[in-house]
Specification:
- The protein is an alpha/beta fold.
- Helices cover 23% and strands 21% of the residues.
- The protein has seven helices and twelve strands.
- The protein has helices at residues 3-13, 52-56, 113-123, 156-159, 167-170, 176-191, 249-264, and strands at residues 22-25, 40-43, 59-61, 65-70, 80-83, 90-96, 101-107, 134-141, 198-203, 214-218, 223-226, 278-279.
- The chain has a six-stranded mixed β-sheet with strand order 9-8-6-7-4-12, with helices on one face. It has a four-stranded mixed β-sheet with strand order 3-5-10-11, with no helix packed on it.
- Strand 6 and strand 7 (101-107) form a beta hairpin.
- Helix 3 (113-123) packs across helix 6 (176-191).
- The longest helix is centred in the middle third of the chain and has 16 residues, at 176-191.
């Protein structure tokens, strides 16, 4: 492992945290720092019961991108998606119960909420009277540092600098919770629907697990927690799959995301609430 990869893994790992309801044990990302973290994970959603091979067939939705799932689809890649890591990005899923279509977004601070609403209207094939058929879910994880890393415990959302900006700066001065409210209100007004049709959550706990950071979602908008390292989500790009190690997860993910961004967003100014979403169908394959 190069020094760059180790630094990338460490910087990402300090953001890991977990959530509250269901309990399980999982491998953590990366193994090289496993002594810093508990392998006991509080998870808000049940852990996926799919096999690793089944999980690897789901479409992986990177930040700034979206996909569409359908009840009638034949391929797993069009029936299920993995969205993550969600810290402090937001999962946004909107389902049209009338036709069984579900639009799934991985919203970064720079993504335009208007783009999300217009794309969802188109992809869900909404008619004027279809509002009562809609159901939505917004989800993210809290970004809190913890004493186990010998850090003072102040929320990194307000203190961690990335390119000279905190995450609050990137969200136009909004707190994580305020950003979630902004997203929800935008969806309610954009689709002309009632508040009870959109569920919204930000999750916080006192232990770390990468299983809390990502979700597996199906076309019916049912969410499960999933650890992209444990399930070797990116292992499908290696032949044989045994050549892929769980600690390779972050560097491989960064490579694919970099290739996508280079193709679709080269030269774009990543300012708050401005970037249109790009659709992913299936998974990226190595050239």
């Amino acid at each position: 492992m190069t020094r760059y990869n180790f630094l990338l893994i460490f910087c990402f790992t300090v953001l890991l945290n977990s959530s509250l309801d269901a309990m399980g044990r999982f491998e953590l990302t990366p193994k090289i720092l496993f002594r810093c973290f508990s392998s006991r994970a509080n998870l808000h959603f049940p852990y996926t019961n799919l096999s690793g091979e089944g999980v690897r067939q789901a479409t992986f939705v990177y930040e700034k991108y979206y996909t569409v799932l359908s009840d009638d689809a034949k391929n797993i890649s069009e029936k299920m998606a993995i969205v993550g890591p969600l810290n402090p990005c937001f999962f946004v899923g909107i389902r049209n119960e009338k036709n069984g279509r579900c639009a799934v977004f991985h919203k970064l601070s720079c993504n335009s909420i208007n783009s999300l609403v217009e794309i969802a209207k188109h992809e869900l094939q909404l008619q004027k009277a279809d509002g009562h058929h809609l159901r939505g879910h917004i989800f993210s994880n809290c970004m809190t540092f913890h004493d186990s890393l010998l850090i003072d415990g102040k929320a990194c959302y307000d203190s961690l600098l990335i390119n000279g900006k905190t995450w609050r700066d990137c969200h136009d001065g909004k707190s994580h919770h305020e950003e979630m409210i902004f997203i929800k209100r935008s969806l309610l007004s954009g689709f002309c629907i009632d508040e009870h049709q959109i569920k919204s959550q930000i999750f916080e706990s006192d232990s770390f697990s990468s299983a809390a950071l990502s979700v597996l979602v199906d076309s019916k908008l049912q969410l499960h927690s999933v650890c992209i390292a444990k399930e070797k989500v990116f292992g499908g790009y290696f032949v044989p799959i045994e050549a892929f190690k769980e600690e390779d997860t972050l560097s491989v993910r960064a490579t694919f995301l970099g290739a996508l961004d280079s193709a679709y967003f080269r030269g774009h100014n990543f300012v708050y609430n401005s970037l249109p979403f790009v659709k992913l169908v299936g998974n990226i394959r190595k050239a």
